Amino acid sequence: MKNILVIGATGQIGSELTLELRKRYGNDHVIAGYIPSSMPQGELKASGPSAIADVTDRQSIEVVARQFKVDTIYNLAALLSVVAESRPAMAWKIGIDGLWNVLEVAREYGCAVFTPSSIGSFGVSTPHVKTPQDTIQRPRTMYGVTKVTTELLSDYYFTKYGVDTRAVRFPGIISNVTPPGGGTTDYAVDIYYSAVKGEKFICPLRPDTFMDMMYMPDALHAAISLMEADPARLIHRNAFNIASMSFSPEIIYAEIRKHIPDFEMEYQVDPLKQAIADSWPDSLDDTCAREEWAWKPRYDLETMTVDMLEKLKNKLTK
Ligand code: SER
After folding, report:
1. Which residues does the annotation mark as catalytic?
2. Which atom number of ligand 1 is nearest to the Cα of residue 170?
3. Class of domain 172-213+244-316
């Protein structure tokens, strides 16, 4: 039986991943790791065990690994791209010093480790359309620097010590549960909230800015199915391109207007966000993920929009 620790369990992805893992492996087998300033609440708190697991404090991770006989760690602690630019030292401390702590505990206790990379691991010199799995990765953001280092360090621990590290490069993740904070792709979540609240949306990116995006259920499915994949089939490990949809602000706006025809949007470009978005791919080629562990997304922009609007209407009118 698996015993799983989710580090960053109260964050954007962690809060939903923890519940999904509990459904699959049993409530008592999935520990919600948190830092004291971000305690689990509600269903996350009530449905299973939680424990302090701070990536910057190796001992705290080790204590949980020992106590709960952890064999798999999902390490989701990170600062997103925009906030990492204003706090680069903290982004490194959490992203890389933190990863080192996780990998050392994993080496000692024999845990498998999932630490996501991102479309942010690419840069201006990367081919932008159908970005290949193996290509140039020279990002100029601190977020990107930490993500490329994450990929390299994770591969290093696999080849040098045999730690079972695996990961995906997440695109912008869209969800109706825990909002993201400080990312470049956040607009694609915020736009749905504005639409449902009947507010005009101020878009921080140019109308033609394409980026890869994914609905949360597909992102969770990707992480879990990669960790369950037969290792003999994995040629790559850290980290796989995955893709399900690529759109620009004008395309998502038009999609939402099919449901809310009087929804309004205005552009006020944020130069930092625009520069980051321009340096990232327009779309990823995820052939390797499809071939090596049968990755297949379920949602596209149309079906995601229907679900997002319905869920947010329920949530915001309660
Ligand atoms: N969602 C992230 C960001 O915008 C990218 O992976 O920073």
Report:
1. 143
2. 6
3. alpha beta
How many Å lie between the centroid of ligand 1 and the Cα of residue 68?
Answer: 31
With a pLDDT cut of 90, the percent of the chain lying above it is 97
Question: Which top CATH class is 4-171+215-241?
Answer: alpha beta
Within 10 angstroms of residue 11's Cβ, the number of other Cβ atoms is 22
CB 216 within 8 A of CB 180: no
Average pLDDT over residues 102-117: 98
What average pLDDT does the chain have? 97
Domain boundaries in the chain?
4-171+215-241, 172-213+244-316
Distances (CA, A) of 202 to 152, 171, 279, 318: 37, 22, 22, 25
Q: In CATH terms, are 4-171+215-241 and 172-213+244-316 the same topology?
A: yes
Q: What is the pTM of this model?
A: 0.96
Enumerate residues 6+ apart whose C-beta is below 8 A from 188.
172, 174, 211, 213, 247, 252
Query: Which band of pLDDT confidence, cut at 50, 70 and 90, is reported for residue 1?
Result: low
**Nearest-CA residue for atom 6 of ligand 1:** 118
Return the best residue to mutate from 186, 190, 246 for the ligand 1 pocket (most ligand atoms within 8 A of CB): 186
pLDDT in tens, 140-186: 999 999 999 999 999 999 999 999 999 999 999 999 998 888 999 99
User: 144 CB under 6 A from ligand 1?
Assistant: no
